[in-house]
Amino acid sequence: MMEKTYDPKQVEPKIYKMWLDGGYFHADENDNTRETFTIAMPPPNVTSQLHYGHAFEHAMIDVIIRHKRMQGYNTLWMPGIDHAGIATQIRVEEFLRKEQGVTRHDLGREKFLEHVWEWKNKYGDRIIEQSKLLGTSCDWERTRFTMDEGCSKAVREVFVRLYEQGLIYKGDRIINWCPKCTTALSDAEVEHEESEGKLWHIKYPIKCSGEFLTVATTRPETMLGDTAVAVNPNDERYKHLVGKTVVLPLTDREIPIVADEYVETEFGTGCVKITPCHDPNDFEVALRHDLERILVLDENACVNENGGKYKGLTREKARLAVIKDLTDLGLLEKTETHIHNVGHCDRCKTICEPISSKQWFVRMKKLAAPAIECVKSGEVRFVPERFSKVYLNWMENVRDWCVSRQLWWGHRIPAFICQDCGEIIVAREDPAACGKCGSVRLEQESDVLDTWFSSALWPFATLGWPDETPALQRFYPTQVMVMGYEIIFLWGARMIFSGINYLGKPPFHTVVIHGMVRDSEGRKMSKSLGNGVDPVDVINEYGTDALRMSVITGVGPGNDTRYFPEKCETMRNFCNKLWNASRFALMHVTPEDTELKDGLCLEDKWILTRLYQVIGEVTDNLERYELGVAAGKLYDFVWGELCDWYIELIKPRLLDGDTIARSVLYRVLTDSLKLLHPFIPYITEEIWQTLPGMDKAIIVCDWPKAGKMYNNEAAGMERVMDAIRAIRARRSELNVPPSKKAPLTIVTENTADFEGGKAYIARLAGASEITVTDTAPKSRDGLLSLTTTAAELFLPLAELVDLEEEKKRREKQLAKTRAEIKALEAKLANPGFTSKAPPQVVEGERVKLEELKKIEKKLL
Predict the structure, then answer these.
(1) Which residues contact 746 (CB under 8 A, 6 or more apart)?
(2) Which of the residues in the chain have pLDDT under 50?
(3) Residues with Cβ < 8 Å from 262, sequence gap 6 or more?
């Protein structure tokens, strides 16, 4: 017997233990009788704990996996966590600095890494337990970590293979450098933001001429590293100067004037300062013209020894000092406001510095080509499709991937440098001696690999690759990858080209993109704003099912969603509604009612038809990954049709012991529970266990299938229900008590439908007697007229209300409504309000005004 009220705190731990003990999450690689369906969990970073975005993503994946499990697939949801190199190292360094007053350099590499592993064990365990709280049906026996032994083996194998293919090299290139994290970043780890800056026009004296070339720059402090001025070879203004030199201001150096088609004649003055070590385009110009390369900023973005008297200044202070000195020398021609995109570190938001540095790179052109083709051909598709264009645009313009990071936490690059002859050795096992000179003085590269290097291997490294394991053979390629749109490049693209390069096929056929969870005002959740929401707090207040249903319902693929506590409360109410309806059903159904019986009534045929329509629509929505649409349809069907209509319609029959009504109620309830299970697994499983005739858990029950449809009868019932809704709505507006009955005339072409629905209308619409006709009354005096799509309804107004009192009430309400309209119109006409109030507040007042005008119209 079910408890009177549903208590998630009591139910959820019990049900989850039942699932674990039953082995329902485990995938069997030795089962060849069923088709597989595999999803690899986007591994949460081991930086701290799960946030609300993880709850959203986990809920989405769990809906997909549970649906496929009920469809009979051998499902595997592979769980795990990511070491998150930069992010985790920063967190641990902050912790050690605050708690112990030491830096990683005080501890040394090995001791520091011991602290990071302690952090990983603490927060890794916490993340797994939080994931379980969310009801995730992962195969926890297979939990992986991006730095576990197997994944580390895969990472080393990939590095060696790429090196053997000539696709990994160490070179001096312009990279993105974060001066706060003090490490290189790949292009995908840089966020570009539009910013208002300055464009300084600086005069460079042409040697021995008394003339100047004026260059425009947004980075005057880097001019200390200039090694040329470039002009376009077709620019008639400067052709005569090519080959001459200018004197670099603030230094004693002369630099050449070169001609290069990279220069845009229309930008600025058509003259560009070339700073090879601090601009990627300038770096390429320097290679073409064999220019000197001078680095003037260090790893902290301070001027180094090549900056003369400016040495030691931060880039910001150096800029001010350089501008002042140029002004004093009369070499600053003018300053303009300039809007440009500035790159920021996606971790710490510090402005990145383009600098020349020796780093390890992956050559991307060869790897990108098949990864581009597989999306163009449809072998891999994005949901929504618009994100395929985003992916292709990035891949078709991809640059070589900088994969080395100046960190201690991560996969250390398996390259060894001979200290005697300089030979670089890259091998699957640590070498004992140099293969070139025989020296044993070998030192391993101190840098580690980009976090995304190992994450790119996740779909197959977690299945045992590079070994040919049974799991790899059975579950690769996986079917679906779910990810946020912000990591399509960081992770999605790299998984695709990695799968193709190492296993000959993409790692999945579908990429389902989701948006970001924002706060109620549409802002990104962040620590600085203090608007983050802990999913565990939401679970404690509303229950896991309410959280899951709230984050999914109404959200389309690729779209952002907002967190509203009110939505969680609504979904908790929905769960309670389902619980109460199930308790009511259990008071009536028996083991003999589990099979659908013949002799169906009109309302039975209607609810079964609606059920079968919903089964078809929801199944189709889930196959299209329209999870939010599917959840919304189930909410509307269960609350609005099963609970509010069907159960109310059959109550008299149930009291009379009608076995047909009981069998239909049982069928609709059990199929509804199955449809809802992927979304709200705990409450559906708990209810399922109490129903008669259940011999297994709902988690492994068959997905429901549609049965015989009664479309004509269902349409007739809908017409009757429309009439009941219209009458009840108007009675409510007139404040007519439910006990007050009145005769009703129904004028319609569908007389048979309404004749068959008389009993429902009489009971649910307060009709004392009902006349169904196809002829309208000759006189409408004293009659209240209502119109639906199928009928016109007439009620004697005098029998429902005191006409004089009703008139006074309406006049009073009309006066009040008009006063509110006047006040709101004045408020919205006041610029002081509309310009200063938050946009959402102003919009809210406009919506309120429109609603008041609708009320006014009804009262007239």
Answers:
(1) 723, 754, 761, 770, 771, 772, 773, 791, 792, 793, 794
(2) none
(3) 230, 272, 281, 284, 285
Give Cα 521 to chain centroid, integer Å: 17
Cβ-based burial of 758 (10 A; exposed 0-12, middle 13-18, buried ≥19): middle
Structure tokens belonging to residue 858: 């009804």
The CA distance from 573 to 290, in Å, is 72
Instruction: Read off φ and ψ for residue 435, nearest 5 degrees.
Output: -75, -15
**206 beta partners:** 246
332 φ/ψ angles, rounded to the nearest 5 degrees: -95, 110
* Sign, Cα dihedral of 347, 353, 354, 360: negative
Please report the pLDDT score of residue 858 as a whole number.
63
**CA-CA-CA-CA torsion for 349, 350, 353, 357, nearest 10 degrees?**
-80
Whether the Cβ atoms of residue 45 and residue 87 lie closer than 8 Å to each other:
yes
> Residue 200's beta-bridge partner residues?
217, 335
Distance of CA 341 to the CA centre of its chain: 25
- Cβ pair 631, 679 in contact under 8 A: yes
CA distance 731 to 725: 10
Q: What pTM, to 2 d.p., does this model score?
A: 0.83
CA distance 495 to 485: 15
Q: Quick check: 638 and 672 in contact, CB under 8 A?
A: yes
Cis geometry, peptide bond prior to residue 43 (ω within 30 degrees of 0)? no
Closest C-alpha to 496, from 364, 361, 368: 368
With 0-12 CB in 10 A as exposed, 13-18 as middle and 19+ as buried, what is 56?
buried
* Alpha-carbon span 505 to 486, nearest angstrom: 24
Q: Angle 770-775-780 (CA atoms, 0-180°, nearest 5)?
A: 75
Token pair of 248, please?
């670099």
Calpha distance 553→849 (Å, rounded): 28
Tell me whether residue 697 is exposed, middle or buried, using C-beta atoms within 10 angstroms of its C-beta: 0 to 12, 13 to 18, 19 or more. middle
Give the pLDDT score at 527.
63
Q: Is 682 left (phi over 0), alpha (psi -120 to 50) or beta?
A: alpha
Q: What's the pLDDT at 63? A: 98
Its sign, for the CA torsion 179, 180, 183, 189, is negative
* Residue 775: how many other CB atoms lie within 10 Å: 7
DSSP code of residue 467: S
The whole-number pLDDT of residue 806 equals 65
Do residues 674 and 703 lie in contact, with contact meaning Cβ atoms separated by under 8 Å? yes
CA distance 690 to 685: 9
**Which tens digits make up the pLDDT trace of 225-241?**
999 999 999 999 998 89
Name residue, tokens 């565990």: 536
